[in-house]
Amino acid sequence: MPRGFFLTFEGLDGSGKSTQLRKLAEWLEAECGEEIVVTRQPGGTRIGDRIRTLLLDSKTENLAARAELGLMFSDRAQCIAEVIQPALAEGKIVLCDRYTDSTEAYQGGGRQLGSEVVLELHKAMCGGLDPDLTLLLLPDFDRSLERARRRNTRNATKKGDENRFEREDELFYRRVFDKYCEIARRKPLRVAVIDGDQGIQEVHERIVKVVGTRLKER
């Protein structure tokens, strides 16, 4: 059986990637007539969801940057073993909300740990499993940050919110944004940049065009 297709979504918080992932999954199921495996990182497994709570809950304090990095890859290794690799072995299409590019952008760029340590851990913890295609959503920086801040405000009173990263300052997010741009320049064959501030449907149509072309080439 041929290997499946591994597609990841990347972008700043507030970029709309989770919405676009859901829309693409629905489109693919209609087009392909088969189940699409959808997962996320951190999370996607029982162990991963526990790690996600620790990493994203705004009540988590004093977590060292390298400890955060290690937890991200522990979650990822579990998701690969439990969800991603089995699905790919069965020839399925796998959509994942964030992957190693997020870690390079947020921990490598935002936390200023650098790309080298992230990429070395990727080789060791993920067996070098790279996506076949990455969709990087890069709308206007200021608008993305504003949307993330609004969501943070709405969720501020919720028990167990996931706003820990949204509390970071603008300089942190600028470093994340710049690192994403660096990744896109370094990996132009894998990373398709969906930029600009178009509406949800317009962005979806751009994504469908890119994905449809890549699947035909497969």
Report on the structure:
The chain is of the alpha/beta class. It has a single domain, classed as Rossmann fold (3-Layer(aba) Sandwich), CATH 3.40.50. The chain is built from eight helices and five strands, in the order βαβααβααβααβα. It has a five-stranded parallel beta sheet with strand order 2-3-1-4-5, with helices on both faces. It starts with a strand and ends with a helix. The mean pLDDT is 92.
Highlighted features:
218 residues, alpha/beta, Rossmann fold, 5-stranded parallel sheet, 8 helices, 12% strand
Widest beta sheet: strand line-up? 2-3-1-4-5
Q: What is the oligomer described by this structure?
A: single chain
Give the low-pLDDT segments. Answer: none
> CATH topology, what is it called?
Rossmann fold
Helix content percent band: 55-70%
What share of the residues does DSSP label as strand, in percent? 5-15%
Average pLDDT works out at: 92
From the alpha carbons, calculate the radius of gyration and give it in angstroms. Answer: 17 Å
Overall spatial form: globular
Could you say what the CATH architecture is? 3-Layer(aba) Sandwich
Number of helices: 8
The span between the termini is: 14 Å
Largest sheet: 5 strands, parallel
**Count of domain modules:** 1
Q: What's the β-strand tally?
A: 5
List the helices and strands and how they pair.
Layout (H helix, E strand, L loop, with lengths): L4 E7 L5 H16 L4 E4 L5 H11 L8 H25 L3 E5 L2 H11 L4 H12 L6 E6 L2 H14 L15 H17 L4 E5 L4 H18 L1
Parallel strand pairs: 1-3, 1-4, 2-3, 4-5
Helix pairs in contact: 1-8, 2-3, 3-5, 4-5, 4-7
Compact summary:
The chain has 218 residues and is α/β, with parallel strands linked by helices. It is built from eight helices and five strands; from the N terminus they run βαβααβααβααβα. The chain is globular and about 45 Å long.
